[in-house]
Amino acid sequence: MATNTIVVLGAGVSGLTTAYLLSKDISNSITVVAKHMPGDYDIEYASPWAGANYLPYVLQGVGKANSSHARWERNTWPALKELAEKHPEAGIHFQDTVVYNRKKDQGSATGNWFSELVEKEPWYKDVVPDFHNIPEDQLAPGIDNASKFTSVCINTAIYLPWLIGQCRKTGVVFKRGVFKHVADAATAHHSSKKADVVVNCTGLSSRTLGGVCDDKLHPIRGQIVVVRNDPGAMFSISGTDDAEDEITYMMTRAAGGGTIIGGSYQKDQWDPLPDPNLAVRIMKRAIALVPQLVDKGQGIEGLDVIRHGVGLRPFREDGPRIEADKVDGVSVVHNYGHGGFGYQASFGCATEAVELVNGILGQKARTKL
Ligand SMILES: Cc1cc2nc3c(=O)[nH]c(=O)nc-3n(C[C@H](O)[C@H](O)[C@H](O)COP(=O)(O)OP(=O)(O)OC[C@H]3O[C@@H](n4cnc5c(N)ncnc54)[C@H](O)[C@@H]3O)c2cc1C
Ligand SMILES: *[C@@H]1O[C@H](CO)[C@@H](O)[C@H](O)[C@H]1NC(C)=O
Ligand SMILES: *[C@@H]1O[C@H](CO)[C@@H](O)[C@H](O)[C@H]1NC(C)=O
């Protein structure tokens, strides 16, 4: 019997994963309301633009093995692994991934992002399969060290709709809606009963949403090129010689999703339009790093471009906000601010958001007795 009314605000990977986990409890009746839904491509909607892969991430200074960040990503790997192994319809596959490091990138924006990733013994070495360091004598000039492991690549155009399908199977209702204030969301449940809990998964928009204006949120702009070429594995490197906030990485999405080539890591830049000069640098760097991306001897004319894109990573100083709150008498659970790791931390973060929801629902049940 569905007795708990829950509204989830936002249909990015954070909102959909939270709704999916909540929907496994049959006593929950859930409405997901969002301005953007899977199928939309908009600068206010980060999730479709992501690669997306599992490349353990580190917030400067808080990325160590016992941090909450590592916990979220550690707890997400088994779920993504199971989807890749047993649910081909989810659009996730395994791929070898190679991470290159240049010592000179230490301290730059991208070097900080990669700092734990390129450690000799990073916290995730026993989480992902086949982790090993690549022997120095196998490294190309300019690369100081490198590691290799098995990761996953998610085709977001298949995976986000798959999450919706899983939710719809158990009766979750999806609607479009734009809310100026979190308290308004409480009246959006499809039963027209007031929601017991609102879950706030609005990503970067939480910066301006009434009742929660969070100035710790910043966009980190990521520009990408999607191509039909296939390099055969995922590659990334800690930095470039072009700019401190540019980077080179590539990954091939499952099920014919094409190869995403990145990229950039531009803090506080909001420009939704692809910069054509940056696009050329992205393509040139990708070929320099992984020559097999194109036929022998070819330059960027050897890339078969599907589209160019820009997404804004919803970065939050201090890390994502996964927290219970009360706004104008409405119980709210926040789950936003996942920067460049929304997929690889999705199940870990959503599980903790669900625990907070259950705590609020448990209190409600006790007051009724
Ligand atoms: C180029 C790029 C590459 C990336 N690569 C990776 C990667 O490889 N691996 C990885 O794990 N992550 C990656 N990320 C990060 C990942 O995309 C984000 O962390 C994740 O998508 C954030 O999801 P979200 O659900 O929190 O927010 P979003 O996807 O932005 O969703 C927000 C939702 O809230 C809705 N909303 C907002 N405001 C309102 C409102 N007022 N009323 C109603 N609805 C509202 C929106 O319409 C939308 O549905 C990448 C990001 C970019 C840009
Ligand atoms: C790679 O170099 C970095 C410094 O940039 C160092 O911290 C790290 O331990 C090295 N990793 C390996 C695998 O040697
Ligand atoms: C979600 O959180 C943001 C950031 O604190 C806030 O601005 C917004 O009002 C919240 N939305 C809801 C529905 O609580």
Summarize it.
The protein is an alpha/beta fold and 369 residues long. The chain is 24% helix and 27% strand. Helix 1 (13-22) runs parallel beside helix 4, helix 1 (13-22) packs across helix 7 (346-368) and helix 2 crosses helix 7.
Task: Write a structural description.
One of its GO terms (biological process) is D-amino acid catabolic process. Belongs to the DAMOX/DASOX family. By secondary structure, this protein is of the alpha/beta class. It has two domains: about 5-50 and about 155-215 and about 320-369, NAD(P)-binding Rossmann-like Domain (Rossmann fold); about 90-150 and about 215-315, D-Amino Acid Oxidase, Chain A, domain 2. It is built from seven helices and 15 strands. The strands form two sheets. Strands 3, 4, 5, 8, 9, 10, 11, 12 and 13 form a nine-stranded mixed beta sheet that branches. A six-stranded mixed beta sheet has the order 6-2-1-7-15-14. α1 (about 15-20) links the parallel β1 (about 5-10) and β2. α1 runs parallel beside α4, α1 crosses α7 and α2 (about 70-85) crosses α7 (about 345-369).
The CATH architecture assignment of the largest domain turns out to be 2-Layer Sandwich
How would you name the CATH homologous superfamily of the largest domain?
Answer: D-Amino Acid Oxidase, subunit A, domain 2
Order of helices and strands: EHEHEHEEHEHEEEEEEHEEEH
Mean pLDDT: 93
Gross morphology is: elongated
CATH top level class name of the largest domain: Alpha Beta
Number of helices: 7
Distance between the termini: 18 Å
CATH topology of the largest domain: D-Amino Acid Oxidase, Chain A, domain 2
Largest sheet: 9 strands, mixed
- What is the beta-strand fraction? 25-35%
Keywords: FAD, Flavoprotein, Oxidoreductase, Peroxisome
GO molecular function: D-amino-acid oxidase activity; FAD binding
Cofactor: FAD
Protein name: D-amino-acid oxidase
